[in-house]
Amino acid sequence: MTVQIDHALEEIRRFRPSPEFAAQAVAGTRLYEEARADRLAFWADQARSLLQWETPFTRTLDWSNPPFAKWFDDGTLNVAVNCLDRHVAAGNGDRVALHWEGEPGDSRDVTYAELTDEVRRAANVLTDLGIGEHDRVAIYLPMIPEAVVAMLACARIGAIHSVVFGGFSADSLASRIDDAEASLVITADGGYRKGKVFPLKPVVDDALAKAEGGTVKNVLVVRRGENDIEMADGRDLWWHDTVAQASNEHEAQGFEAEHPLFILYTSGTTGKPKGILHTSGGYLTQVAFTHKNVFDLHPETDVYWCTADVGWVTGHSYVVYGPLANGATQVLYEGTPDTPHPGRWWEIVEKYRVSILYTAPTAIRSFMKLGRQIPHEFNLRSLRLLGSVGEPINPEAWIWYRHVIGGGSIPVVDTWWQTETGAIMISALPGITDLKPGSAQVPVPGISIDILADDGTPVEGEGGGLLVVTEPWPSMLRGIWGDPERFKETYWEKFGDKYFAGDGARRDEDGDIWLLGRVDDVMNVSGHRLSTAEIESSLVAHPWTAEAAVVGASDETTGQAVVAFVILKASQVEHVTDPSDAAEELRRHVATQIGAIARPRQVFIVNELPKTRSGKIMRRLLRDLAEGRQVGDTTTLADTSVMTAITEQVR
Predict the structure, then answer these.
(1) Could you say which residues bind CoA here (predicted)?
(2) CA distances (Å), 58 to each of 41, 47, 61, 66, in order?
(3) Of 83, 161, 429, 513, which is least packed with CB atoms within 10 Å of its CB?
(4) Which residues are bridge partners to 538 per DSSP?
(5) Beta-ladder partners of 543
(6) 291 marked ligand binding residue
(7) Full-prediction pTM beyond 0.90?
(8) Which region holds residue 37: left if phi is over 0, alpha if psi is between -120 and 50, else beta?
(9) Sign of the alpha-carbon dihedral angle for 104, 106, 111, 115
(10) How far apart, in whole angstroms, are the C-alpha atoms of residue 481 and residue 272?
């Protein structure tokens, strides 16, 4: 990460916390001290202070059967009550829980009292449909309030939800339904994306025809898109005919802290998705703690917006469970950032006076491509803290985010965590840590992180290696659904007692951590190990570049070769008459900044990059293209037509 570090160190002194965070600094410093003094006592204190327990726990951690942890396991609680009922009981029922904004411009404000009533009604409907403790419910919905309601209704009655991103294909949905043996699917007729209604219920019908298990007994359908659908007699039910008519009286019970809360599927190297299992007490403790402290949340005054879809773990932890456990007011947006116009996000920030914005680096770089004039059309002065999630953010995007969106004076926190970790693991805390562009920086209090060489030897001082978590943490995954051996082999086999999920990292001279991306994104060019993130950062540092993605492609001479896909800034496109000239200029730039060994074999100038709805670049698809293979499964992309367009441009 030489380029990132050298560039960022020049900027560090500009980004010290402002005086307004002085009180937070004192409190945050105390958190670090308490966690260092007694890590388990620290997490026990957080669990007791942040959550309401039906039965208080007496055991903090049972690590007698690693890697299977148990946190607070003799205590009981209800996750939905912690997210809703207790806030109403505390007199905050009139506080807005969700400012929901539909893509076409329709909107709803949902208070904590209203959301509690809706979840109780939905819980009664699920119970009437025969759903109970440990039953699995597949949720396939757009970003509408009913998605939050469905998740919390499952949590309220002890059912296990499996949320499937609304852009997944029928095959992907069928495989997840079969693996979880779901009894119920909750979906919608359709939802809005890029100005059009995309059908959801027909995909469910197709998936159920393909599913082999035959476990689904009912399909509950929310009316959103008003598109024509078929309803199967005896199986399919309308949400408005059932939930709206149900009683809002529901007595919630406490469940053991290790009661399963949800399964969330991630892509697996074997081709079979991995069902990541999270439980209740430990997970809710850490997402509530990190949401409160990483974002310096003040629920009485802040309006918080995490732009992730609930189909991804960021949506679980920092749209649903963390914010609602803390009684936050937040924005929920259905559509894409540029629909119906490129300034849509900033229009929403202005409308709701958003104070905390948490989004992906790829979204930030997309806005960089469009230029600062678009956000400057809107009043963004309500923002006081910015966050980054999803993949390492390059210093250039960090600086643009802070200066153009944040006005140059507010903190940017870059967070590292995974579906498997459940909650933020590495992040600066505003007002405590001197902010450093592009660096995730330090583990949050109570988390133990190290960097190891391939043989397991700790990397002392400055240097790079493999990122591991050395001690169990509350929100850690409890396994892979139905496959404990795969859980052990995937995450624990390499180092035995340390969690390793495939990320590389580097520690700089100040002791701060820089994420290098997945180890399989480290290329071996003529025996030299090069990070794709470092080369991408070099490309984005060029004034012509808005965004870049780098992959390693097989090469007969060098083993692997660097291949880059670059989007030019809108202000530069009209000045570039020959893409090959731009490509050559960028190849020279990388060679100058990093060295000749890093010079890309090819630079392709493209209009878009393949991204998931959560903003992650699907480098696997670009690698297929660079190596001349047929492009693989594109169902997880936010826009499946992007790869077709890129292929045409490359060829």
Answers:
(1) 193-196, 314, 526
(2) 11, 11, 10, 20
(3) 513
(4) none
(5) none
(6) no
(7) no
(8) alpha
(9) negative
(10) 12
The reply to whether 506 sits in an annotated binding site is: no
For residue 222, what are the contacts with CB-CB under 8 A and spacing of at least 6? 141, 144, 146, 186, 187, 188, 189, 239, 240
Contacts with 615 (C-beta within 8 Å, 6 or more apart), sequence order: 359, 360, 361, 362, 363, 390
Q: Coil, strand or helix: which one is 474?
A: coil
- In sequence order, the β-bridge partners of residue 467 are 451
- Which domains occur in the chain, in start order? 2-448 (3.40.50.12780), 526-650 (3.30.300.30)
Q: How far, CA to CA in Å, does 555 sit from each of 103, 507, 631?
A: 45, 31, 18
Q: Which residues of 468-485 are buried (b: 16+ CB within 10 A; e: fewer)?
A: bbebbbbbbbbbbbebee
What pLDDT is stored for residue 13 in this prediction? 41
Number of H-type helices and E-type strands within the chain: 22, 30
Q: What pLDDT, on the 0 to 100 scale, is given for residue 14?
A: 44
Instruction: Determine if residue 599 is labeled as part of a ligand binding site.
Output: no
Which 8-state DSSP code applies to residue 393?
P
Residue 187 in contact with residue 231, Cβ under 8 Å? no
Lowest mean pLDDT among 147-161, 223-237, 486-500, 568-582: 568-582
Please enumerate in sequence order all residues whose Cβ is within 8 A of that of 242, keeping only pairs 6 or more positions apart, or say none: 125, 220
Chain centroid to CA 83: how far?
20
pLDDT attached to residue 19: 52
414 is in an annotated binding site: yes
Phi, psi of 265 (to 5 degrees): -90, 135
pLDDT at position 524 is 67
Residue 225 C-beta-side C-alpha neighbours within 13 Å? 24
Question: Annotation-wise, does 529 bind a ligand?
Answer: yes
**Strand, helix or coil at 75?**
coil
For residue 48, say whether it is annotated as part of any ligand binding site: no
Confirm or deny that 503 is annotated as ligand binding. yes
Beta-carbon contacts of residue 454 (< 8 Å; ≥ 6 apart): 465, 466
pLDDT digits (tens, 9 = 90+) for 98-151: 999 999 999 999 999 999 999 999 999 999 999 999 999 999 999 999 999 999
Spatial strand order of the sheet with 602-605 comes to: 545-555, 559-568, 602-605
Q: φ, ψ for residue 516 (rounded to 5)?
A: -100, 5
**Closest Cα to residue 197, out of 100, 339, 310?**
339
- Asked whether residue 86 is marked as a ligand-binding residue, the answer is no
**Pick from 498, 66, 480, 52: nearest CA to 285:** 52
CA 575 – CA 394 distance, rounded (Å)? 25
Query: In terms of C-beta density within 10 A (0-12 exposed, 13-18 middle, 19 or more buried), how is residue 130 classed?
Result: exposed
Asked whether residue 391 is marked as a ligand-binding residue, the answer is yes
